[in-house]
Amino acid sequence: MNKKITKFEQEVYEACSRIPLGRVSTYKDIAVYIKRPSSARAVGNALNRNPYAPKVPCHRVVRSDGSLGGFALGSLKKEFLLSHEGLKILKGKIRDFKQSRYSFE
DNA sequence: GTGTTGACCACAG
DNA sequence: GCTGTGGCCAACA
């Protein structure tokens, strides 16, 4: 049952699950949170594999410029889910992204 | 051990 | 505003 993954992935998933509903975070913010400030790409990689698929709200993670970035289940799904959590999507980007963005403590 | 790939980021033009 | 380029890190062949 226990999937053998690296600590890096564990940190990524934990960070995702910390994002409250109605908020979003960025790959960069997660990277910083897990002490890998320059590995935003690796963060995206971990989510793409997503061994914790429905367990973690990975759709709340977007790119640094507020665009949705990618999504294993389809970018449309991501946009739909975010819209349903009270966020506004405008032309494939988060509206008021700066305000909706959540920072880990 | 080496090279490629990827849900990225920042900068230059 | 968009496109191209270099760089970063981890997983995979």
Written overview of the protein:
This protein is mostly helical and 105 residues long. The protein has a single domain (7-49, 56-97), classed as Winged helix-like DNA-binding domain superfamily/Winged helix DNA-binding domain (Arc Repressor Mutant, subunit A), CATH 1.10.10. It is built from five helices and four strands. It has helices spanning 7-17, 27-33, 40-49, 75-84, 97-100; strands at residues 25-26, 61-62, 89-90, 93-94. The strands form two sheets. The chain has a two-stranded parallel ribbon with strand order 1-2. A hairpin with a 2-residue loop joins strand 3 and strand 4 (93-94). Helix 2 crosses helix 3 (40-49). The longest helix is centred in the first third of the chain and has 11 residues, at 7-17. The protein binds a DNA duplex (13 and 13 nucleotides) through residues 6, 8-9, 26-28, 31, 36-50, 58, 61-65, 68-72, 75, 78.
Quick synopsis:
Helices cover 40% and strands 8% of the residues.
Question: Which helices and strands appear, and what pairs or packs with what?
Answer:
Layout: H1 7-17, E1 25-26, H2 27-33, H3 40-49, E2 61-62, H4 75-84, E3 89-90, E4 93-94, H5 97-100
Parallel strand pairs: 1-2
Antiparallel strand pairs: 3-4
Helix pairs in contact: 2-3
The chain binds a DNA duplex (13 and 13 nucleotides) through α2, α3 and β2.
Structural category is mainly alpha
CATH superfamily: Winged helix-like DNA-binding domain superfamily/Winged helix DNA-binding domain
The span between the termini is 31 Å
Q: List low-confidence stretches.
A: none
Q: Which word captures the global form? A: globular
User: What is the N-to-C succession of helices and strands?
Assistant: HEHHEHEEH
Q: Give the strand line-up of the largest sheet.
A: 1-2
Q: What Rg is obtained from the alpha carbons, in whole angstroms? A: 13 Å
Classify the oligomer.
single chain
> Would you report the number of β strands?
4
